[in-house]
Amino acid sequence: MKPIRKFTVRAVIPAELGALEELAANLRWAWHEPTRRLFQHVDPGLWQASDHDPVAFLGEVDPARLAELAGDGGYVEWAERERAALREYLAEPRWFQSLGAETPRTIAYFSPEFGITAALPQYSGGLGILAGDHLKAASDLGVPIVGVGLFYKAGYFSQSISPDGWQQERYPVLDPDGLPLTLLRAPDGAPVQVTLALPDDRSLHARVWKAAVGRVPLLLLDTDIPTNSDELRSVTDRLYGGGGEHRLLQELLLGIGGARAVRAWTELSGCPAPDVFHMNEGHAGFLGLERIATYIGEGLTFAAALQLVRAGTVFTTHTPVPAGIDRFDRALVERYLSSSLLPGVDPADALALGVEPGADPATSAFNMAVMGLRLAQHANGVSKLHGEVTRRMFGDLWPGFDAEEVPITSITNGVHAPTWTDPALLGLAETRLGTGDTEHAEWRSPALADGEFWAVKRAMRQQLVDDARRRLVASWREQHSGAEPPKWVSQVLDPDTLTVGFARRVPTYKRLTLMLQDPDRLKAILTNPERPVQFVIAGKSHPADDEGKRLIQQLVQFAQQPELRERIVFLPDYDMSMAEKLYPGCDVWLNNPLRPLEACGTSGMKAAMNGALNLSILDGWWAEFAGDDFGWVIPSADAAGDAGERDALEAAALYDLLEHRVAPRYYERDGDGVPIEWVRRVRETLAVLAPELGADRMVREYVERLYRPAAEHFAVVAAESARGARELSSWGARVRAAWPGVQVAHVESGGIDAPHVGDELQLRAVVRLGELSPDDVRVEVVYGRSRADETIDAAQHADLEVADAAAQLSPGEHLYTGSLVLDRAGAFGYTVRVVPRHPLLLSTAELGLVAVAD
Asked: What is the pTM of this model?
């Protein structure tokens, strides 16, 4: 019989154990092993069954056990020590506090999903896990971030696999009262609500849940409240659920409602208002329009408000293909962007921000990434290669500029080591290397013997085997109406066999089934009697992606063959809980996307943090960190005639590596059964590579390269009632209007008869500026090696100086002169160009205006 209503009743904890409630309320337990050990001691079996969720766990513990512990002075003292340690962690100065006064006061970090812990399932994949790791590292470093997202009543989805291998989705409903969340409340105790005006005189209301992620507050907006209609209560029903209008409502709520929630939070908490806003992908782009509306209400024009917003906004894109970007029908967006929703904002100005370059403004789709880039003066991709891809992908926003000048940088993602490093490896570092910091431990130290390290790695592999068997048994019972599974299900995998892991979302470009290109050859690798290999595979396909589901089905059906089912397994319902066992238990992490479509791919980073070697295409993070000691590179067949040939060539390379390089090295043992060379490489990976892969490195880079510059620039343009923003907007409007009259009329060079290295080339250029003055522009010579395709390679720039600003050759014309030294032999080319110049521009390409000599 089904209940008509469900809710969570919180446990009553003895007063002596009040520290447990305080510790459970802060999500630091998700990555702080001493706190997790404290809870585990209460009831180890129940702790495991609760998926390490203290809130749910305490609700299930036998009250008699709690009473017993309340009378145990040693345990009470232990709990108090951990509470004192948490309070110290929350209050003490950390890295950020050592940077001095020239730092952001608050950074608001917006993301559609956050992967903090399996107990708070508000994530679908890498974007959310990255956002969670970003907040955790910010907390550890003392960076004053506030996270902003949505609370999805059913999270993403739970995955099961039918007997024929087809993915099936379930959406278990979450009760926020049973999660580590509290409502944001006004001083009178009433829940804070934010409201968005919608068409047809409707209103969308949302309450605000708050999670404590260490030192970082995370605000999650929830529309499932009685003041909304049934239709609007479902706006935050599922992550990435529903059609275009449903998705648009979610993104309006995230951006506009999120900005309003931050404003309410700052007023209630007394924390400074953010001077930097960070959009983790384009889903939150509407926050810029909300901020523009606020500044218009303070007396700024749209153009000046846009300059002010841009100055303090950071935009991070994780998308390497246009198909991955949210695009909405223009008419639909126009219907929602009313003056009631955004007072003072002309809908035409707002709509123009989302128009795709080169498209008809009247018919262009509304592109969220394009809007994000137009609203942010600071933008980045998430690996060096992805930065290059992104500059080419969005280059049309800055026409006339080479990809190298497109103002999008890159900061390579990182992973939060305390979250993802297995406790067994942490224990080894503590006992043998004298540190709890696995990310920076000296893993090559002779204090740790190879044999001892290998024994711990085997235990981690055994842990994965046990977890996989448990999950497969549960899956069998679910598929077969509770029937007992056959014996082989509980015998899959072997803790002494080379274990390859592959787990991620399942879009087609990640090529889940590349390994199946030659089924017979894969079978031979898996069942090699002397050097067997086993695969542990997991991943979810988007519910609407039938092609991805077919890939899963193909893999599952292959793995069901009797001779292979103990050597290759697909684990359903990939989530953080599974990942915590999967990464540590693998010896090799496989990644074979279509290069360059993997923006970063942090799963391989997590595996490396746990002593695994990578076997990967040179894409994402691996393209910049690959090394012989860290794994193997699968060659890319970029020159293949078609996709089928490319897959066949790259699959063959994968098989060759497994057969002739990976497996032989793994099974090469000394007299004690230890693979000495393998262990050396793993220890080198932990000692050298792991520190580069950490989220602390990533967040430091964001602070130093994006957050601080954004805060400094915002302070400049906001000073004196936004004087800088007003000046820059009016100057920009004047320059754009006059730019059609700017032209490089004539260029001549001299001083060289037969060019040699070291010679000086003299240049003269006549430039027509029309209504602009020399103060408005920079005239440059662009030079470098001339390529066969008539482009300049590795271009360098040198300014030309106006010969006499007061003297004009004819009305609007000026003479510019200068020289450059020929510093290299070979083909050489140069041109002269004119670009706008203003002290508040951060990039030559910022306005997308350039005039180049014909």
From this structure: 0.96
